[in-house]
Request: fold
Amino acid sequence: MSTRAVSPAPYTRHVPRALARTAAVVVLTLLAGCTPSVSSAPPDATASGSPTVEAAAPASARPSDIPNPAATPTWPRPGPVDTRTGAELDQPFTVDGVVVVSKAHPVSANYSPPWTAEPQGLNPDAYAAFGRMATDAQADGLRLSIRSGYRDYATQAASFHRALRTYDEETARRYFAEPGKSEHQTGLAFDVWDGVNRGSAFARTPQAAWVAANAHRYGFIVRYPDGKTDITGYAWESWHLRWVGTDIAAQFGPDSSLTLEEYLGLA
Ligand SMILES: [Zn+2]
Reply:
């Protein structure tokens, strides 16, 4: 685990937002049965952070973490908007230096990361971290290896079109990325298995449970958590790990259902 101090800012930015939304709904619901003069207030007066909403901040939050409506009138602050077009798609979208490649944030066929010649085509830090993770899993009696690492655009295209021929389109699109929309093209993500069970079968292995509980300690997140298809665009994939580094992964924690989109303010 990292011994460096971890900034809670992105996580606490996420939590109050959800609470604020809930509080806003409650306030608006209460107002609905109130006097006409109150209910005629513009909806955004409460949604953007009235004193009532501000009071909904968790008691554990430090004063500096509680949004000041006067200083941040647009709270909850939306994440950055991806405005890339044309040749700009030759580089991935990033938020605070974190690469995001997804259905909403594609890259072109021209993009390849600088570490494609490394083992599995993976970022060397990610690969080294996986080595430590696999060693520790082995100590717990669990074999863990990489089944698929970096995939270039053409390889992904072949995989996607094969899936379209094999499954119905809806299923294919939930489990397989179109070329340019796969994290595998970044060399920051990979699929693990136990050497026998892959895909949905892997989800039922002790390895999958171990990975869910421990991956964050090595700098990985389970990128497509269960129940978050509406946000990620992909089905739950217990086997697909994304390198984000230990500082960020620590904020996801064990058995996390947080998505990178939520963490970065994109959802
Ligand atoms: Zn994958």
About this structure: Residues 19 and 56 are 7 Å apart (CA to CA).
